[in-house]
Amino acid sequence: MRTSKSVESLKPSGIRKFFELIIGREDVISLGVGEPDFPVPWRIREEMIYSLEKGITSYTSNYGLYELRESIANYYEKFGVKCTAENVIVTTGVSEAVDIALRAILNPGEGVLIPEPCYVSYLPLTVLAGGVALSYPTTPDFIPTCEEMLKIAKKAESEGVKIKAVMINYPNNPTGVSYNRSILEEIADFAVEKDAVVISDEIYSELSYSFKHRSIASLEGMLERSVILNGFSKAYSMTGLRVGYAIAPEDIFNAMLKIHQYCMLCAPVISQIGAIEALRNGEKDLEEMRAEYIRRRNFFVKRIKNVFDVKKPDGAFYAFPSISKTGLDSEEFAKRLLFEKKVAVVPGSAFGDCGEGYIRCAYAVGMDKLKEAVERIVEFVESL
Ligand code: PLP
Asked: Cα–Cα distances in Å, from 138 out to 60, 94, 284, 355?
């Protein structure tokens, strides 16, 4: 075989596979892709256009623009974290940050705890980094518990696997659930007990509706053992601009920087300039988008509850209703909904075995389309 065994062992992304089916289909309403439907706020675009006109198209420092790193360090105080620009590395989206954090931390055969259902990249990137992905189930409300973490850790340790990192993501993709202080404390206690690093993907922190987002790194003693990942794709609708960041303690920061400088060099300069403007003046735009997501969430949950059990999402722009009463598995449900009613959702199984029996619906479409999509889902379920 000419290709690597670890790559061959990976399944293709369940989301992408599904979306190949609807590319170019104008007649389909998509609640599928996790991408905001708002344009990048005008003031951010204007700043980027202006810098392009000035011919700013060079590489930046590997670390990222200092002004951006400083703004991020100040901004994170809002989530309870006190750090300096020296802890901040600017990356090409959170996607890169997940990859280099795992590669910086893991030796071959070391374990990463991953609560399921979870974002699609954690497991494959752990494997590619030479680690062992230790998936464990969350509660029926999608909360990770110490009990399950200890259970999977015990089994892994008995097989000689050291627990090196604990991955979390809140508000969560695909469930929309977020973690309050007591849940974070439980995860933190576990990490301390195992002397593990917490990798905390907080990309939806600004889209937190039920309670104020707090970073796990804000808990006592946790800054030293946490790598915070965040970025501009979701909150500022900047998905294609590819800018994210990590906040990490010095040793992990240096290791991540080494990988980043060889594989990426730097995030796009224009996008970094846009990100500076987002943090400087983007609050009002953000508030407007947040208010619209809340309106859509409330509508969607109220209507879909007539046919499915669903937990009201605390944040992000996803709802994760249970389809178990239909008797269909999630892939079959999603395929039939697409072919019979022209609505795209993502089968829960794309987010790990624990996602089976659910579908992910992204309410990142305008209200008119959302209303039409829900009606079609209800019709479909009633026709079964
Ligand atoms: N992490 C989570 C939880 C996500 O949902 C996504 C995108 O959907 C990413 C990371 C990747 O984000 P980025 O566009 O910053 O690479």
From this structure: 41, 23, 35, 10
